[in-house]
Amino acid sequence: MFPCALSFGTAQVECIAEPEGKLNGPRSDLTCNSHLLDGIEVPAPVTSFLDLIPDSGDVALCRDSSNPEPVTYQELRAILKDPTIAAFLTRGDRVAVVLQNGREMAMSLLTVMHHACAVPLNPNFTEAELVSSFKQLRCSTVITTSAHLPALAAARQLDLRILLQVGQGSSLKFEGCEDDGSLNPARAQQQDFIDEQHPVLLLKTSGTTSKGKVVPFSMRRLKLY
């Protein structure tokens, strides 16, 4: 009834056989199901976050109470490929995303993960809690809204770059990406390529200590879900 026990170290398969004659033969497919493992393919390497998003007009994110228009996969891809934010972020940047749960938060998270490492944080944290989290997670940039005063105050206290999420749906933008002389189109183009082992997401969990635990997710790990 169960697949055979596998020995990956020696690449051998050991079958659990029934006593001879019990099932009209020395072994049965019921007790040796190694054939179920045949044909399993190793997922192809992911070179860009766009490899995981279909290039189609199908709905990627449904409408919500604040915006009745759904977002298609093509519109989502266009937001991710916007070179403006890419020119100001690098793979090594850790970007805190402090937004209320919803469609725009999800889109902002995906956008950051495409260009850098996203660090979503509880939008209900106090200023002191955000300062502590920014320090612990070594964030260099904060994405929030103009109405989130604790996040703005915490970011300014640590002199972190602030990007304001504006617009909705396919019009989602980030203010604060003005060209201050550091705009580098070549860097923006390079950002499309991802090292599968590089973390693109850090999740802070409650853990068992006051500081909690941090769980990293690489692109390789995410594509297996």
TrEMBL record:
Domain AMP-dependent synthetase/ligase: from-to ranges: 68-220
GO MF terms held by the record: medium-chain fatty acid-CoA ligase activity
Coiled coil: none
Gene3D superfamilies from the UniProt entry: 3.40.50.980
InterPro entries: AMP-dep_synth/lig_dom
Pfam family, one: AMP-binding
Protein name (record): Oxalate--CoA ligase (Oxalyl-CoA synthetase ) (Peroxisomal-coenzyme A synthetase)
GO BP: any one term: fatty acid metabolic process
Organism whose genome encodes this protein: Cladocopium goreaui
Keywords assigned: Ligase
